[in-house]
Design goal:
Layout lengths: L9 H14 L4 E4 L2 H6 L3 E4 L26 H13 L5 E5 L1 H14 L3 E5 L15 H22 L2 E6 L6 H9 L4 E3 L7 H14 L4 E6 L7 H11 L5 E5 L11 H19 L5 E6 L2 E6 H6 L6 H10 L2
Parallel strand pairs: 3-4, 4-9, 5-7, 5-8, 6-7
Antiparallel strand pairs: 1-2, 9-10
Helix pairs in contact: 1-9, 5-6
């Protein structure tokens, strides 16, 4: 099943789980619409042909949803009964924090083996160097920022580009470096507006006539519109514009990196369940497969690389 926000590469993971399970002599079922579909018994058996021609597709063929009913015990009990009705005795859950929180509770209450796969563009889960969909999302932002750079240069404008990242600035940091952004604003650091506008003014006095500022949506400044408003108030001579990329970052065909990562993790998930792993997220750290307990993957915060932030500013001078 896939749950929570979709991310490019989920289909590659589904394909890998299905075909590895079948190769291992197992029957495999797809649960549509995540925990909500589990409660509504939207479950059907999958075959190798069921996942043909999906490795290159964005989104998730199993659909996804968030479920308030699964937060209640009666909802989880109904979901468990539906799984047992189909003789399902283990689960691979592809998603992020919310998905793994639900999986952890479900495992404890019903003694049900679950392996999680990190499917989120935010890359904010502890226990893996990269999450499924993160690389594609970064590439999407870079492509958009490169196009915006053309018009910024033509009109000598300053563009604030807001990217996803409510609690983590990984997309903003990596895409900002890749597109040569003048500034990168992330939730992990404090944005001091007076200092920020002073640096902006200094850059314009030196040589710059256009610029790109990448803003993670969770930045403490209040987002791209708010900080652009404050910049205009302090520096009215600057022609500042705002672009919110929004859900375009979730879509699109997954990158080669995400396809390989998702395929590897899907394969590992089935092998892990057969090897006795449960209540854990499968990830890759330093090119090695690791299994991290759900509680640790959720609660331990992955730190952003502050040196890369400093590097991005030096390279933008």
């Amino acid at each position: 099943m896939t749950s929570g926000g979709d991310s490019p590469g989920m289909n590659a993971a589904i394909r890998a789980v299905v075909r590895t399970a079948i190769f291992s002599g197992l029957d495999v079922f797809g649960i549509y619409r995540g925990y909500e579909g589990m409660i509504d018994n939207q479950i059907e058996q999958l075959y190798s042909s069921s996942v043909s021609n999906i490795v290159q597709r964005g989104g998730t063929v199993l659909k996804t949803a968030r479920s308030k009913r699964f937060m209640e015990y009666n909802g989880r009990l109904q979901a468990y009964n539906n799984l047992r009705e189909h003789n399902i005795d283990a689960l691979v859950a592809i998603g992020g924090n919310g998905t793994f929180t639900g999986a952890s509770i479900f495992d404890r209450e019903f003694d049900f083996p679950i392996i999680g796969l990190p499917g989120t563009i935010d890359n904010d889960l502890y226990g893996t160097d990269a999450t499924i969909g993160y690389d594609t999302a970064v590439n999407t932002v870079v492509e958009a920022a490169d196009k915006i750079r053309d018009t910024a240069n033509s009109h000598e404008r300053l563009f604030f580009i807001e990217v996803m990242g409510r609690d983590a600035g990984f997309i903003a940091l990596r895409s900002g470096i890749a597109c040569g952004a003048e500034f990168i604003l992330v939730p992990e650091t404090t944005t001091y507006i007076d200092n920020f506008t002073r640096l902006l003014k200094h850059d314009w006095r030196k040589s710059k006539t256009s610029g790109i500022v990448i803003v993670a949506e969770g930045d403490d400044s209040g987002g791209a519109y708010e900080i652009a408003k404050q910049v205009k108030e302090r520096l009215p001579e600057m022609d500042a514009r705002v672009t919110i990329l929004g859900h375009i970052q979730r879509g699109g065909s997954p990158s080669g990196f995400d396809r390989v990562l998702a395929s590897t993790l899907g394969y590992i998930a089935v092998k892990g369940l057969l090897g006795g792993h449960r209540g854990e997220m499968a990830g890759i750290v330093n090119k090695e497969v690791v299994f991290t307990p759900f509680e640790k993957a959720i609660k331990h915060h992955k730190d952003i690389n502050k040196e890369m932030l400093e590097m991005s500013r030096i390279l933008a001078l």
